[in-house]
Amino acid sequence: MRLPSPMRRRGLAIGIDIGGTKVAAGLVDGDGRVIAEARRSTPGQDPRKVEAVIVDLVRELSAKHHVWSVGIGAAGWMDLAGSTVLFSPHLAWRNEPLRENLERLLRRRVHLVNDADGAAWAEWRFGAGIGQSRMVCVTLGTGIGGAMVMDGRLERGRFGVAGEFGHQIIMPSGQRCECGNRGCWEQYASGNALGREARELAAANSPVAQELIRAVDGDIGAITGAVVTKMALDGDQACIELLEEVGQWLGLGLANLAAALDPGMFVIGGGLSAAGDLLLEPARRSFARNLTGRGFRPAAQLELAALGPAAGMIGAADLSRIAARR
Amino acid sequence: MRLPSPMRRRGLAIGIDIGGTKVAAGLVDGDGRVIAEARRSTPGQDPRKVEAVIVDLVRELSAKHHVWSVGIGAAGWMDLAGSTVLFSPHLAWRNEPLRENLERLLRRRVHLVNDADGAAWAEWRFGAGIGQSRMVCVTLGTGIGGAMVMDGRLERGRFGVAGEFGHQIIMPSGQRCECGNRGCWEQYASGNALGREARELAAANSPVAQELIRAVDGDIGAITGAVVTKMALDGDQACIELLEEVGQWLGLGLANLAAALDPGMFVIGGGLSAAGDLLLEPARRSFARNLTGRGFRPAAQLELAALGPAAGMIGAADLSRIAARR
C-alpha cells in the first residue's frame, strides 16, 4: 500500500459515533480538534439504513474538505482488524462486514472502533491521559464501558473484546445484569445503577426522598441517574448520598482493576462523570481503602475525562487515520 | 553495552526460586531445560543471610559450567528494572537493592523477577502457552499468583505490580484476606481456601466428612488443601465436592479476568493444579456460565500448566538471560 504523504497523514478524518438514539459525526484534525459536526437520528436497527445515514453524514462533512479516512465507533465488539461488527447490543448487527460495505459506498478508508476504545484513545492522545504508559479508561453511562492504552497502543485482547470491566462480577447472586449474569459491577457503579437505587429510595417513600419525589411530580419511574446527578449538584442531600454509594462501588471495582492491571491512571468519563467530585471523592476514598497492598506500592491516580461526549468520535477519527497509514 | 555473541546468548543461566521454607536453584539452558539443581533451607528473613545462600547455590551450580546470568524469583513486588525488591511477604525485604548486592557478590548479571511472572514466562516460552498472543497465568497455591504475557512480553503494569488477580474482591464483606481486605478471590479459589473449607466441614462433624477426619486421626487442624486434593484423587466424595466448589469460584474469577483482558488461554498452575480435571472441569463449567457475552464471542481455553514447580526457576533464568542482553 502507498504510504501517505506527511501532509495527508496530518489531514482531516471523520469520526462517527453510532448511539442507540442518534448518530453523531465530527470532522477531526490531526490535533484532535473537532472542526465541524453533524448528527442524525438513529434510523432503527437495519444495517442498510444505518449505512445510508453514515454515507449522508460523511458527504455533508466532506463537502468542503479533503477527508483522509472515516472511523466508525459503536457499542459492541469489532474484530481485531476493525472490519467486522461481531455483535452490537443496540443494533441488529451480527458478524456484519460494515467496513467493506462502507468503503465501497464512501470510496475512503474506513475503520471500526468499539466506542469505549475510541474514547480511551482520544483521552490518551489529546485529553486527561497524555503521557501515561498504562492508562485505564472507564466510561460510566447506562452501563460501564472500558478500555486500556498500554505502552502507546490499545490493548484489545486476543479476540478484540477486552475491556468489559463493567461485567466483572463483584456480588455473586447480586443484581441481574443485561448481560445475563448477576452481580456485575455496572449494576452498582453506573448511571443506571444510580437511577435504580434512587427509584427504590423514592418507592420506599422515605422522608429523605421527598425532594426527589417532588422533582418528578411523583412519577417515580421518571427518576434517572441524570436527575439524581443534577439534584446532587444543586445540593440535595439524599442525592449526594446516593452518589456517594455509587462512588464507593466505583472505587471497589477500580481497586480490583488496579490489582490486576496496575495502571498509572484511571480516566473516568461518561454521563455520570458530570457529578464530578461528588462521585470522584467517595470513589477515591473507596479505591484507597480497597486497594490490595496499599502503603507498599505506588497507586494509580483517578482523574475525570477531559474531552466530554466528543471523545468517542475524536478517537474513532484518529484511529482511522492511523489504520489508513498501514 | 556489548552485545553477547549468539552462542553466549543461548548459554546457561541460573534461576533461583526463593520460597518461605526453601531456596531452589536450577541451571537452565536456552531451551528451558533444567541441567542441574540444588537447594537449601531458607535461612530466616535476614537479607544478608539469604544473599549468602544465593551465592553458595550459584557457586555450586557454576563450578563446571559457564553461567551467563542469574535470575532471582521470589514472591513480592520487584521494581520495573528488576533491581529492587519493593516488598516481599515472606522475607524482611523493603526497598532492598538486591540486584546490586548480588551483582557485586557474584560478578554476574542478576535480574529480579516476581515468582508468578517467572512461572508465566516459562509456560509461555517452553510450556502450555507456547504461541499464545495473550496468555494469563494463574498459580494456585497458598494464595493466587498471577501474570500476563501479551504480545510476547510480560505485562507488569505502570509500577511493576500488575497481576495480583487473587486480590480482586468478588465478595464484599466476605472472608478476611491476608492482604487486609475482605472477599478476595484467593480466599475462595486457592489451596488455602480448600483447606479452610475442608476444616470447616470436618469441624461440623458432618457424616460426609468422616473419612476426612479419619485421614488426619481426628486432628482437624492438620487438614490442608494438599490432603483434600490427595483424598479427592483417591475417590473420596466429600473431597471431590470441596474441589468442585473451589473450581466454581475459580471459574467465576477467570470469567472476570476474561471480561477485562480477553486472553486466548488461561494457564492454571501451582500446587492445587495437581487436582487436574477434578478442579478444572468444574472451573470450565463455571467459566462458561459466568463469562459475559457468552455465545457472542470467542472464549479463552483453560489449560493446566506444563512445567510444574520448576516453572519459576526456568522463567527467572530465561528472563535474566534476556535482561543481560540489553
From TrEMBL, chains A, B:
Q: What EC number(s) would the UniProt record show?
A: 2.7.1.2
This entry carries the following GO cellular component terms, namely:
cytoplasm
Which GO molecular function annotation, any one, does this entry have?
Answer: ATP binding
- One Pfam family from the UniProt entry? ROK
What PROSITE patterns does the record point to? Answer: ROK (PS01125)
The record's InterPro entries line, in alphabetical order, gives:
ATPase_NBD (IPR043129), ROK (IPR000600), ROK_cs (IPR049874), ROK_glcA (IPR004654)
Query: What sort of enzyme, by top EC class, is this?
Result: transferase
* Biological processes annotated in GO: glycolytic process
> What family does this belong to?
Belongs to the ROK (NagC/XylR) family.
Write down what this protein is called.
Glucokinase
* Organism per entry: Arthrobacter jiangjiafuii
